[in-house]
Amino acid sequence: MKERLVVIGNGMAGMKVVEELLAQAPDMYDITVFGDEPYGNYNRILLSPVLAGEKTIDDIMLNDIAWYNENNITLHSGCKVDYIDRLAKTVSTNDGAKTPYDRLLLATGSKPFILPVPGHELKGVIGFRDIYDVENMLETSKAFKKAVVIGGGLLGLEAANGLALNGMDVTVVHLMDTLMERQLDFTAGAMLRKSLEEKGLNFITEGSTEAILGEDRVTGIKLKDGQEIEADIVVMAIGIKPNIELAQKVGIYCERGVVVDDTMLTYDPNIYAVGECAQHRGIAYGLVAPLFDQARVCANHLVHKAYLAYRGSVTSTKLKVTGVDLFSAGNFSGGEGREEIVLKDANSGVYKKLVLNDNKIEGAVLYGDTGDGAWYFQLMRDGTDVSDIRNTLLFGQAHLGDAGHGGSNVMALPNDAEICGCNGVCKGDIVDAISAKKLFTLDDVRAHTKASSSCGSCTGLVEQLLANVLGGDYSAAPAEKPMCGCTHYPHDVVRTAIVDQNLKTIPAVMKYLDWENADGCASCRPALNYYLICAWPGEYEDDSQSRFINERVHGNIQRDGTYSIIPRMWGGVTTAKELRAIADVTDKFNIREVTVTGGQRIALFGIEKKDLPAIWADLGKAGFVSGHAYGKALRTVKTCVGSTWCRFGTQDSTGLGIKIEELTWASWTPHKFKFAVSGCPRNCAEATIKDFGVVCVDSGYELHIGGNGGVKVRVTDLLCKVDTEEEVMEFSGAFMQLYREEAWYLERTAPWVERVGLSSIKARIVDDAENRLALFERFQHGQKFAQIDPWKERAEGESHKQEFTPLMETA
Amino acid sequence: MNNWIEIGSVTDIPVLGARIVRRGSANIAVFRTSDDTIYALENKCAHKQGPLSEGIVHGCRVTCPLHNWVFDMQTGEALGADEGKVPTYPVEVRDGQIFLSLESAGNTSEPMAANG
Ligand SMILES: Cc1cc2nc3c(=O)[nH]c(=O)nc-3n(C[C@H](O)[C@H](O)[C@H](O)COP(=O)(O)OP(=O)(O)OC[C@H]3O[C@@H](n4cnc5c(N)ncnc54)[C@H](O)[C@@H]3O)c2cc1C
Ligand code: SF4
Ligand code: SF4
Ligand code: FES
């Protein structure tokens, strides 16, 4: 018999766990769900837009009743569980019916906090929590005129805005002198108040409610200072409290919420808890993003996989009042050891505050201009050390030498502005698709519009569009981005699992991490193949069917289906013999075009696939090996002529470049990797836009990292200065290895450096000599297995013949 | 059933890979999935004629190597946001040998398991 899972609470958290279970082990449990509300599961966040008339109840349904039937889930909606017999393992409802369970999940959410003042039980005094409350407000607004909202926080302001849009005369009564005082300081609070007053709302700050007036139905409220305000409806939005009534009644250990451990288990080994009712490491969250993380962990344990742990979430919110931009994230109230940087421009209505702790962003509040919210949030979640960019941080991402994340304020662009240059997708198309098709994540947008699905350089812009169009809803997206549509797991989790769990083949990884599509897709398979190569040098056998065509065939496919190849010319130096060999194959195989590349190599274009092995054989005789111009691999080491010829040269830059190329060639990397060595600061080899650049000076060598000359130019950061060539080699190898082990597949060094922060790289390579050496040794170990010329293998061996010959030729 | 030709054995094609059958200037791409199903499609992407035989095969889909359009190999239809269709050819596997029909291109092929 299947195990029985009973879920109490048919809300966002409970159903997220159920969805995860269905995806991972659809047949494992008999699932029964109890929900107090008479509906399926809906997106509670969007009650605010429903109240404001921007959405309907139908729009916000996440799982309708049919969904439960389709998935064989027994749903008791409109049915409240009022007892759990933990010994007999049953739950009972108010009609006395008992349902047995093997595992129980508490997902009872929270309740609005109602001030216990006289009159709080009168008709017309409500919270703002569910569909019932919203319908109540909408009804009232038809018959009555006056509304009071108690509480000037996010929820209260959204309620007030909605009521006003329904024609009511709304007064917000707030206890403190500043609206949203937890997020905003006095000035910013005043800015917010002013723009809401312009929308017709009235405010009473420092107003403390003493009583609610009325006989049967509410007629007004009375403040401590004696002031009375007329009201036909009073909405209490002063906070929420975890709904732990049931848990407490049956003796499950609770503090503020139901206390759970890192696996979301309560003190009862058969009972889990997720969502707003749960308290993890002292925190009961009041937002959706943590639910996604909690649900993932909980499901992982319910299916007995048990390798995920929940370690808390960083959260962000947006005020969902159309026309007022307010974003906040993390801990924004400062405190011991925290520093605040603030930008205030009252005239243009902009306020930005970042709270830093130990050089990392810990909190952010943006008002007026929220375009960089997603970026700050990213820096915060990644724990990026911002000391190097601190002085321009508040001006936003556009002020960095940014690496393809797009400029700020995409909402200011016209609708026909092209966002994705590769696929020709305009802003208007993306915005329409997001609203019309209810898109939620970057992957959704990619699937529906193609935007950001090719080179990825517009990803940042698309994310900003999502954030802006969805408003607060976007914060509901999972905190960490999954690798691709085949999995829930982000790159880092996958990489850690590969190493920790000794996963040594692509199928093993997919099996262990519950890949959703059996063979993955064209985006995750190459990534997994790379991660395995990097983790298990010499052990993992490269899977050529998980390589992009260029890496499988060791040439570059061109638009007409022919190939180009680039033989390696060490450090850009060549000889008469090599040039002669190139001339000879050009004639012999009718090669259509020969060009000189930007990386100081010679490229041969227009080659038929079947001719490749023979051409490689001829080139090999002259001593050429593959130039890897087709790979996510070391490409070239560009050099200048340096002290051998140039009158300005300080060192032998050419010789050093050759040595570096001999050390690093054939290494596979997350994305392409380019070196350059310049003989003096005139920098003729353009070393400061390379992944790793060496600039020779009289007294040694300056090492620069993270440059990029591609779609978005980024100038390198200075890593350090060293004295000898040996050190240059050691630092180069160590840097490459750190990049290989840490960057996500298809992440260039530039965005990687920005993500983890220059300081963190310096700490591990410059300051920690032992770690540097260990990295360098791992790099050299990997190179033992990597430095085999793929062209030679294919020119000689029979093993690759299938790749280059047709299955059959017919008339 | 006219015009069936034997083009080779299932094992001549790498798992999750493809080989081509040349037919004058036109090519037919013959794919093998992870469960040894064989599909045959014209080797020309509906977008800009990319060689589908060089794409990555996953499930019964192939991703074009040039700009990542994804096609259902059974129907030849583009998936997701893209629209287009690549002609398919009927294939049959008997005793591990693949037979391809050069007629009725465009019709949906009925794939069969290699050992079926
Ligand atoms: C108006 C509004 C706006 C919001 N805006 C945002 C926002 O912009 N961003 C954000 O991140 N979050 C926002 N939130 C918060 C977010 O909606 C919650 O964090 C989330 O819904 C919590 O999910 P949950 O499953 O824990 O609880 P809920 O969604 O509340 O689900 C709990 C369910 O359990 C049921 N239940 C309780 N006890 C029992 C019982 N004994 N028997 C049977 N059923 C029971 C309840 O009826 C309820 O349906 C907003 C909330 C509201 C109300
Ligand atoms: S970088 Fe300096 S050494 Fe090298 S070629 Fe230019 S001027 Fe000469
Ligand atoms: S810039 Fe690069 S990608 Fe663009 S057309 Fe030229 S070679 Fe191709
Ligand atoms: S040619 Fe196939 S996707 Fe462009």
How are strands sequenced across the largest beta sheet of chain A?
Answer: 5-2-1-9-21
CATH fold assignment of the largest domain in chain A: FAD/NAD(P)-binding domain
The amount of helix of chain B comes to under 10%
The largest β sheet of chain A comes out as: 5 strands, parallel
What's the SSE pattern of chain B?
EEEEEEEEEE
Q: What's the CATH architecture name of chain B?
A: 3-layer Sandwich
Largest interface: A-B, 33 and 40 residues
Distance between the termini of chain A: 61 Å
Q: What is the CATH homology-level superfamily of the largest domain in chain A?
A: FAD/NAD(P)-binding domain
Overall mean pLDDT of chain B: 87
- Name the poorly predicted regions of chain B: 107-116
Features of this protein?
heterodimer, A: 811 residues, alpha/beta, FAD/NAD(P)-binding domain, Enolase-like, domain 1, 7 domains, 5-stranded parallel β-sheet, 39 strands, elongated, B: 116 residues, mainly beta, Rieske Iron-sulfur Protein, 4-stranded antiparallel β-sheet, 3-stranded antiparallel β-sheet, 10 strands, 39% strand, disordered C terminus, binds flavin-adenine dinucleotide, binds iron/sulfur cluster, binds FE2/S2 (inorganic) cluster
Walkthrough of the structure:
- Chain A is of the alpha/beta class and 811 residues long.
- Chain A folds into seven domains: 3-109 and 242-302, FAD/NAD(P)-binding domain (3-Layer(bba) Sandwich); 125-238, FAD/NAD(P)-binding domain (3-Layer(bba) Sandwich); 316-400, 2-Layer Sandwich (Enolase-like, domain 1); 410-470, Arc Repressor Mutant, subunit A, CATH 1.10.10.1100; 491-547, no CATH class; 557-621, Sulfite Reductase Hemoprotein, domain 2 (Alpha-Beta Complex), CATH 3.90.480.10; 634-786, Sulfite Reductase Hemoprotein, domain 1 (2-Layer Sandwich), CATH 3.30.413.10.
- In chain A, the strands form eleven sheets. Chain A has a five-stranded parallel beta sheet.
- The two termini of chain A are 61 Å apart.
- Mean pLDDT of chain A is 90; it is low at 401-408.
- Chain B is mainly β.
- Chain B has one domain: Rieske [2Fe-2S] iron-sulphur domain (Rieske Iron-sulfur Protein, 3-layer Sandwich).
- Helices cover 0% and strands 39% of the residues of chain B.
- Chain B is built from no helices and ten strands.
- Chain B has strands at 4-9, 17-23, 26-32, 38-42, 56-58, 61-63, 70-72, 88-89, 91-94, 97-101.
- A four-stranded antiparallel beta sheet of chain B has the order 2-3-4-8, with no helix packed on it.
- Chain B is globular.
- Chains A and B meet through α11, α16 and β39 of A and β1, β2 and β5 of B.
- Bound molecules: flavin-adenine dinucleotide (FAD), iron/sulfur cluster (2 copies) and FE2/S2 (inorganic) cluster.
- The site of one iron/sulfur cluster has 13 residues of chain A, from loops.
